[in-house]
Amino acid sequence: MRGEMRLKTITMRLEIRRRLCVALLAGFGLWWTSCCASAQGGPASTEAGQSSTSIDALSRSPKQVAEYAIANEVKLIEYQHSYLRYRVHTKDAKGDQVRDVVESKDGTVARIVMRDDRPLTAEEDADEHRRLQAMLDSPAAFQKHVQKDQSGKKLAVDMIKLLPDAMLFSYALGQPQRDHKPAGTPPELVIDFAPNPKWNPPTMTSQALTGIQGRCWIDAKTHNLVRLETKIFQGVNFGFGIFAHIYPGGQLTLEQEPVGESRWIVDHFVEHVTVRAMMVKTLNENTDLYASEFAPIREMGYQDAIHLLLGTPLPTQLGLVGSK
Question: Do the beta carbons of residue 57 and residue 187 sit within 8 Å?
């Protein structure tokens, strides 16, 4: 019995580590989710109908552009100057779900509102109420959630700081702009990246960076990432494959959009990755996520955020930004 419980504990820990490793595969952009409007680069212009970026914008080396954006991103991970409420539609192994998400100064809380294109049943809705009420009744449980989130952010910062040395950057030939790029928006710097063969990963998790390559589109004016396409071109072993192995052929794609004057947020994320854990269990990560209906809200604690999700009276007054 003890052996079985120990195996379950080890498996759970490795599963957590595996999920972190999968997240790291999008290290170049997955955490590129906050505002970087304060990071203003030199303005770039292009005539209507043209897909080329101005010579002035391309005067920086691709590595300089990447370093500039990466330095901004490290600051933006902890960005807490505005808060949003929005919907997240996710299709993954758990099914088709829509969540109502509220950002608070203590952390993000969410409530499932739809499953498989239908409203929740009375029983499912009651389960969500009980889950959120349990967070209100047990601040310690919510604190664990916050600590896990902070741990993930720290890991992301550590990985992002490695990118300038871990990758080789080059401008994509022809600077192909996105097909669905909104008219009138600034041109984009299109940069390809691939592992630097001379770079040695300092940690086990950072080995994930040796197996990815791709292309990113960066706003030439603000240096915000607007699109990222990442491919796993070669397998990656963690702990000589004992802990986990990421198979080649996986893909990750994300897109971001500005929300208000000071926020950028991921509105579309697609992940197709195959991972073997503990040399025995192979898992397929297939996720398609859309975020929409962004609305600014005032700063609030997580208790207020939960009450907002539940539609119950708030301990403090709630209102949209600018309301009285």
Answer: yes
